[in-house]
Amino acid sequence: MAIRTTSRTRLTVSATVLLIGAAASACGGGAGGGAPTDASEKEFCQTQSSLLEDLLPEDMANPELPSDEQMAEAVKDWGSKLEEVGTPEDIPDDARKGFEAVVEQANEIDASDFSIEKLEELEAGGKDASAEAKKQAAAFEKYLTDTCGNPLDNLDLPEMPDSN
Protein backbone atom coordinates (compact mmCIF):
# COMPACT_ATOMS: atom_id res chain seq x y z
CA MET A 1 0.00 0.00 0.00
CA ALA A 2 2.95 2.32 0.44
CA ILE A 3 3.35 2.26 -3.34
CA ARG A 4 -0.12 3.75 -3.79
CA THR A 5 0.59 6.58 -1.39
CA THR A 6 3.98 7.20 -3.01
CA SER A 7 2.47 7.04 -6.51
CA ARG A 8 -0.29 9.48 -5.68
CA THR A 9 2.15 11.81 -3.94
CA ARG A 10 4.57 11.67 -6.87
CA LEU A 11 1.85 12.32 -9.42
CA THR A 12 0.31 15.15 -7.43
CA VAL A 13 3.63 16.81 -6.67
CA SER A 14 4.83 16.41 -10.27
CA ALA A 15 1.72 17.89 -11.81
CA THR A 16 1.30 20.67 -9.27
CA VAL A 17 4.93 21.71 -9.60
CA LEU A 18 4.62 21.83 -13.36
CA LEU A 19 1.33 23.67 -13.31
CA ILE A 20 2.18 26.41 -10.87
CA GLY A 21 5.62 26.34 -9.31
CA ALA A 22 7.84 25.54 -12.26
CA ALA A 23 7.88 29.07 -13.60
CA ALA A 24 10.02 30.18 -10.67
CA SER A 25 12.94 28.08 -11.85
CA ALA A 26 12.78 29.18 -15.48
CA CYS A 27 15.28 31.73 -16.64
CA GLY A 28 13.22 33.74 -19.06
CA GLY A 29 10.27 33.79 -21.37
CA GLY A 30 11.45 32.99 -24.88
CA ALA A 31 8.95 30.30 -25.82
CA GLY A 32 5.31 31.11 -25.29
CA GLY A 33 5.89 34.74 -26.28
CA GLY A 34 4.07 34.06 -29.52
CA ALA A 35 1.15 32.33 -27.82
CA PRO A 36 -2.22 33.97 -28.45
CA THR A 37 -3.56 36.54 -25.97
CA ASP A 38 -7.24 36.04 -26.78
CA ALA A 39 -8.07 32.65 -25.23
CA SER A 40 -11.38 32.31 -23.46
CA GLU A 41 -11.11 31.73 -19.72
CA LYS A 42 -12.83 28.37 -20.14
CA GLU A 43 -10.38 27.16 -22.78
CA PHE A 44 -7.41 28.54 -20.80
CA CYS A 45 -8.50 26.77 -17.61
CA GLN A 46 -9.28 23.49 -19.39
CA THR A 47 -5.86 23.50 -21.01
CA GLN A 48 -4.11 24.31 -17.73
CA SER A 49 -5.76 21.37 -15.94
CA SER A 50 -5.50 18.94 -18.86
CA LEU A 51 -2.07 17.68 -17.77
CA LEU A 52 -3.39 16.44 -14.43
CA GLU A 53 -6.36 14.80 -16.10
CA ASP A 54 -4.17 13.13 -18.74
CA LEU A 55 -1.70 11.73 -16.20
CA LEU A 56 -4.12 10.38 -13.61
CA PRO A 57 -4.39 6.59 -13.69
CA GLU A 58 -7.77 5.34 -14.85
CA ASP A 59 -8.01 2.90 -11.95
CA MET A 60 -6.94 4.59 -8.72
CA ALA A 61 -7.53 1.35 -6.78
CA ASN A 62 -4.69 -0.21 -8.77
CA PRO A 63 -2.81 2.76 -10.22
CA GLU A 64 -0.30 2.39 -12.98
CA LEU A 65 1.63 5.60 -13.29
CA PRO A 66 3.29 6.58 -16.51
CA SER A 67 7.04 6.17 -16.76
CA ASP A 68 9.27 9.22 -16.48
CA GLU A 69 9.61 9.15 -20.27
CA GLN A 70 5.82 9.07 -20.72
CA MET A 71 5.41 11.89 -18.21
CA ALA A 72 8.01 14.00 -20.06
CA GLU A 73 6.21 13.40 -23.35
CA ALA A 74 2.85 14.30 -21.78
CA VAL A 75 4.34 17.52 -20.37
CA LYS A 76 5.80 18.46 -23.77
CA ASP A 77 2.41 17.82 -25.41
CA TRP A 78 0.77 19.92 -22.69
CA GLY A 79 3.29 22.72 -23.27
CA SER A 80 2.38 22.70 -26.97
CA LYS A 81 -1.33 22.93 -26.07
CA LEU A 82 -0.62 25.83 -23.70
CA GLU A 83 1.27 27.66 -26.41
CA GLU A 84 -1.49 26.99 -28.96
CA VAL A 85 -4.31 28.17 -26.67
CA GLY A 86 -2.47 31.04 -25.01
CA THR A 87 -3.90 33.26 -22.30
CA PRO A 88 -6.95 35.46 -21.85
CA GLU A 89 -6.57 39.09 -22.84
CA ASP A 90 -6.86 40.36 -19.26
CA ILE A 91 -3.82 38.51 -17.88
CA PRO A 92 -1.40 40.93 -16.16
CA ASP A 93 2.05 41.32 -17.75
CA ASP A 94 3.92 39.60 -14.89
CA ALA A 95 1.50 36.67 -14.96
CA ARG A 96 1.88 36.39 -18.75
CA LYS A 97 5.65 36.20 -18.33
CA GLY A 98 5.16 33.46 -15.73
CA PHE A 99 2.94 31.61 -18.25
CA GLU A 100 5.65 31.96 -20.89
CA ALA A 101 8.21 30.51 -18.47
CA VAL A 102 5.95 27.48 -17.82
CA VAL A 103 5.59 26.93 -21.58
CA GLU A 104 9.34 27.22 -22.03
CA GLN A 105 10.04 24.76 -19.25
CA ALA A 106 7.41 22.30 -20.49
CA ASN A 107 9.01 22.36 -23.95
CA GLU A 108 12.46 21.65 -22.47
CA ILE A 109 11.53 18.91 -19.98
CA ASP A 110 12.97 15.42 -20.17
CA ALA A 111 12.60 12.21 -18.18
CA SER A 112 15.44 13.05 -15.79
CA ASP A 113 13.45 16.07 -14.58
CA PHE A 114 11.09 13.69 -12.77
CA SER A 115 13.70 12.43 -10.32
CA ILE A 116 12.76 13.05 -6.70
CA GLU A 117 15.71 15.43 -6.30
CA LYS A 118 14.66 17.60 -9.25
CA LEU A 119 11.00 17.62 -8.18
CA GLU A 120 12.00 18.70 -4.67
CA GLU A 121 14.15 21.46 -6.17
CA LEU A 122 11.26 22.66 -8.36
CA GLU A 123 8.83 22.47 -5.46
CA ALA A 124 11.22 24.67 -3.49
CA GLY A 125 10.68 27.33 -6.15
CA GLY A 126 13.95 27.11 -7.98
CA LYS A 127 16.62 28.21 -5.53
CA ASP A 128 18.60 30.01 -8.23
CA ALA A 129 15.65 31.87 -9.73
CA SER A 130 15.90 35.62 -9.84
CA ALA A 131 13.58 37.78 -7.75
CA GLU A 132 11.91 38.85 -11.00
CA ALA A 133 11.29 35.23 -12.09
CA LYS A 134 9.85 34.41 -8.66
CA LYS A 135 7.61 37.48 -8.85
CA GLN A 136 6.36 36.40 -12.29
CA ALA A 137 5.76 32.84 -11.08
CA ALA A 138 3.77 34.12 -8.11
CA ALA A 139 1.75 36.43 -10.40
CA PHE A 140 0.95 33.53 -12.73
CA GLU A 141 0.03 31.26 -9.82
CA LYS A 142 -2.31 33.94 -8.43
CA TYR A 143 -3.89 34.60 -11.84
CA LEU A 144 -4.33 30.88 -12.46
CA THR A 145 -5.93 30.29 -9.06
CA ASP A 146 -8.12 33.42 -9.25
CA THR A 147 -9.26 32.58 -12.79
CA CYS A 148 -9.49 28.80 -12.70
CA GLY A 149 -9.48 27.84 -9.02
CA ASN A 150 -7.14 25.25 -7.59
CA PRO A 151 -6.45 22.69 -10.35
CA LEU A 152 -6.68 19.87 -7.82
CA ASP A 153 -10.18 20.89 -6.71
CA ASN A 154 -11.83 19.66 -9.91
CA LEU A 155 -10.20 16.25 -9.92
CA ASP A 156 -11.90 13.25 -8.42
CA LEU A 157 -9.04 11.79 -6.40
CA PRO A 158 -10.20 9.00 -4.12
CA GLU A 159 -8.68 8.77 -0.68
CA MET A 160 -5.84 6.31 -0.62
CA PRO A 161 -5.48 3.84 2.26
CA ASP A 162 -2.86 4.62 4.88
CA SER A 163 0.37 2.68 4.51
CA ASN A 164 0.44 1.84 8.23
From TrEMBL:
Taxonomy-wise, where does this protein's organism fall, top ranks first? Answer: Bacteria, Bacillati, Actinomycetota, Actinomycetes, Propionibacteriales
Keywords annotated in UniProt: Signal
Record's protein name: Small secreted protein
Q: List the signal peptide residues.
A: 1-26
Tell me the organism.
Nocardioides baculatus
Superkingdom, taxonomy of origin: Bacteria
